[in-house]
Write a structure and sequence with these properties.
With 773 residues, the chain is an alpha/beta fold. It contains 27 helices and 16 strands. The chain crosses the membrane at residues 14-33, 39-58, 65-83, 103-121, 133-151, 163-183, 195-218, 230-251, 263-281, 293-314.
């Protein structure tokens, strides 16, 4: 990616102008008069050195050492050529003998070969032994070709001049070796960049020039224009400088794919055939030479061919080893792939199971249960849907912790599975809510299953160190083809809550009237919201009377709505949570109305408080704000609570609120005492001041009232023992008032004294009732 980015984003294209300018200069040198050629050739060579140095400096190639050696070699040879031309350029004698020049040419070629040896080799599965083997094969092939085509003729032509013979024979051989080695790197080892290709072309140019020049020298022939050696040198150095200037010289070459095995095999066959063919050609040419030279012509090519064969054996052994390693790796990868596929299938099954089953109990979850209900609807067979949850499960979590609650759910699921075995389906929908799909069952059978489930849940559970007693409420809904799954679950849920409202620990069969009542309650909630927004509520007051004197010492604030009775809208407000907003509004209004009554008559006011209000974190602040805004003293306010505050997670917060308000002077009364879930222990724990005896305990004028007399007397004595006041509700007659007064009750209220009346009427009634609190 880096390579392509550099080649694409580098805007420098002037290397092309350098190449075109150099080729033009070489053409000028070739066509120039003989007297001008030395000067033009020297200028072209100096420009080439400058371009080469500029390319190394600008691109900073990763193979910088290689390029520096090339620069040194080109500079050394150019300097040698300049020294050769001092007589033509400056009229000075040549300071170097011809033999030294030949040795310098050989040294330059050795430097170029060393530079190419520094270039890195890329490729997969390549080791130092592999590289050395391939280089050796190429070298032997070059020796055979060079011996047959160049060295042997040179030795014959220059037998009397050893220096010329050595240099003239070694230079083409070194050139051919450099070309083949570099071409191998470029074409097979991953250096296939424009810079690498230009380098190969440069070496081919040098080799061609030297070879043609040597052939001309052997034949004493004449050439047109500049000598082939000079042209080859100029073109070769120009291409080297262009390769250094090209932007691809700055990129570390990336490995490319190795050639196919067929290509490699055919290449090795050709290399093997080079030796015999070259030897045969040499023998045909040397038929008339002395026996010594003929023997040498045979020994050298055959020796090189033998070495090539040995190296090929090593190379093929390495190839076989690599193939074996690849086969082993492939087998290992195949085995690993099979294991991975197996693990993937297992993971897929686990994920599928997790997506359709409850992680705690392992039962089907809501999604899978819904699909099962859909299938049952499509089958057209009679089926029944049961929906149940535990009564008071939240208290188990609050009292014993969620770990115990989870263990209880697991034990419950195992027990119920023993009741509804397959083909029936038990599922956990969430929390403590479970569902059962009874397949191919009629109504009577479904009822028996419902009773069996409730009986199983009633039996105590041994969970950790605790023995827990539970019960469940259950809703039953037969499946109908025209009713969808969501509607069926909703109907069963309505039946379940009907069972809870009916007293829990029982089941209720779905009836369309349940949905009618549910929709009516939903409409009631909507109307309640509108009434709160539009201020449609009012507060009525019922007096609290001193039974000994008959004076009105207090009032109870009661919410009223012109459209509905309290029995209709108060339960809807409780269930929807709107009781918090309604209760707050009643509290503030009652404090405002009672402030003047308390100031003028000493009248106290009692306000009913819902358990939902007591669970609010800011309830104390709400009460204090209502008192402060109205100017009503805290001692003139009584908060009436029901015994339901003793249930659920809100009890600690409720007690905290009540205790804090009592310290501020507000009084607390328990409303409807004796009808809820309280115990005598709570009379000690709760911060209360008064007990309000429910109307159910008020005696009637009948012979059977003796028990009620005793019960009322007991409650009054109990209150006195705890130093609590008493208020009796529901006094309807003068006889009840007199009896309750004789039983020791202090205060009472009811229709005998007054129905709830508006605030204005209460103000008028309190005027003649003025008495100290």
């Amino acid at each position: 990616m880096l390579r392509e980015t550099i080649l694409r984003d580098n805007p420098q294209h002037w290397w092309r102008w350098f190449l075109l300018g150099g080729l033009s200069a070489i053409a000028v040198v070739n066509l120039a008069p003989p007297d001008a050629r030395p000067l033009l050739c020297s200028l072209a060579e100096l420009a080439t050195i400058a371009g080469l140095a500029a390319g190394i400096r600008i691109n900073r190639p990763p193979q910088r050492l290689s390029w520096l050696i090339v620069l040194i070699a080109v500079t050394l040879l150019t300097g040698t050529k300049l020294l050769q031309r001092v007589d033509v350029l400056f009229g000075l004698p040549v300071p170097l003998p011809p033999a030294a020049v030949d040795w310098l040419f050989l040294a330059v070629y050795l430097l170029l070969a060393a530079a190419l040896g520094v270039l890195p080799l890329h490729g997969r599965h390549r080791t130092k032994l592999t590289n050395a083997t391939e280089v050796g094969i190429l070298a032997c092939t070059v020796v055979v070709l060079a011996w047959s085509g160049v060295i042997d003729p040179v030795l014959d032509a220059f037998a009397d001049d050893g220096v010329v013979a050595v240099t003239a024979s070694l230079l083409p051989m070194l050139g051919l070796l450099m070309v083949t080695t570099t071409a191998r790197r470029v074409l097979t080892a991953g250096m296939r960049t424009p810079s690498g290709v230009l380098t190969v072309l440069a070496l081919i140019s040098l080799l061609a020039g030297d070879t043609i020049g040597m052939a001309t020298r052997l034949d004493n022939g004449a050439t047109f224009g500049a000598s082939p050696s000079m042209l080859g040198w100029l073109i070769g150095t120009l291409l080297l400088a262009t390769a250094a200037l090209h932007p691809s010289a700055a990129v570390d070459p990336a490995p490319t794919e190795s050639p196919s095995r067929g290509v490699v095999a055919h290449g090795y066959v050709l290399l093997i055939l080079v030796g015999p063919i070259a030897t045969a050609i040499s023998l045909l040419r040397e038929l008339h030479q002395p026996a010594r030279l003929m023997a040498l012509d045979v020994v050298v090519p055959l020796a090189a061919t033998t070495v090539t064969a040995v190296l090929l054996v090593f190379r093929l052994t390495a190839v076989a080893r690599v193939a074996e390693q690849r086969a082993t790796t492939l087998d290992a990868r195949t085995a690993a792939l099979e294991i991975a596929l197996g693990e993937q299938m297992t993971l897929r099954r686990e994920l599928s199971h997790q997506a359709t089953h409850d992680p705690l109990t392992g039962l089907p979850n809501r999604a899978l249960f819904g699909d099962s209900v859909e299938s049952a609807l499509g089958a057209g067979q009679p089926a029944t849907l049961l929906l149940f949850d535990l009564d008071g499960f939240k208290d188990v979590n609050d009292r014993y912790g969620h770990e115990v609650g989870d263990e209880l759910l697991v034990a419950l699921s195992e027990r119920v599975q023993g009741v509804v075995a397959p083909p029936h389906l038990l599922a956990r929908l969430g929390g403590d809510e479970f569902a059962v799909l009874l397949r191919d069952t009629d109504h009577e059978t479904s009822v028996r299953y419902a009773e069996a489930i409730l009986a199983a849940v009633r039996r105590p559970f041994r969970v950790c160190p605790y023995q827990l007693y539970t019960a469940a409420s259950l809703g039953l809904r037969p499946l109908e083809d025209e009713v969808g799954t969501a509607r069926l679950l909703g109907d069963a849920d309505l039946a379940l809550y009907a069972a809870k409202e009916a007293g829990r620990d029982q089941f209720v069969c779905y009836d369309p009237q349940l949905r009618t009542r549910h929709l009516a309650q939903a409409r009631m909630v909507d109307r309640l919201r509108e009434a709160l927004d539009e201020d449609q509520f009012s507060v009525f007051y019922q007096p609290v009377v001193d039974l000994q004197t008959g004076r009105w010492v207090g009032v109870e604030a009661l919410a009223r709505w012109e459209s509905f009775s309290p029995d209709q809208f108060i339960p809807a407000a409780e269930d929807s949570g709107l009781i918090v907003a309604l209760g707050t509004w009643v509290l503030r209004q009652a404090c405002r109305d009672a402030a003047a009554w308390h100031r003028d008559h000493g009248t106290r006011v009692a306000v009913n408080v819902s358990v939902h209000q007591l669970r609010e974190a800011n309830f104390t602040v709400v009460v204090e704000s209502a008192l402060a805004d109205s100017g009503l003293p805290p001692s003139a306010l009584t908060l009436e609570i029901t015994e339901s505050v003793l249930l659920g997670t809100g009890m600690p917060r409720a007690i905290t609120h009540l205790a804090e308000l009592r310290r501020a002077g507000v009084r607390v009364a328990i409303d409807d005492f004796g009808t809820g879930f309280s115990s005598l222990a709570y009379l000690q724990e709760l911060p209360i001041d008064t007990i309000k005896i429910d109307r159910a305990f008020v005696p009637c004028a009948q012979p059977g009232d003796a028990r009620q007399f005793a019960l009322v007397r007991t409650i009054v004595q109990l209150a006195r023992g705890f130093r609590l006041g008493t208020v009796v509700e529901g006094i309807e007659t003068s006889w009840q008032s007199r009896v309750l007064r004789l039983l020791g009750c202090q205060l009472g209220q009811g229709y005998y004294y007054s129905k709830p009346i508006p605030a204005a009427a209460m103000t008028a009634e309190l005027a003649p009732q003025s008495a100290p609190a």
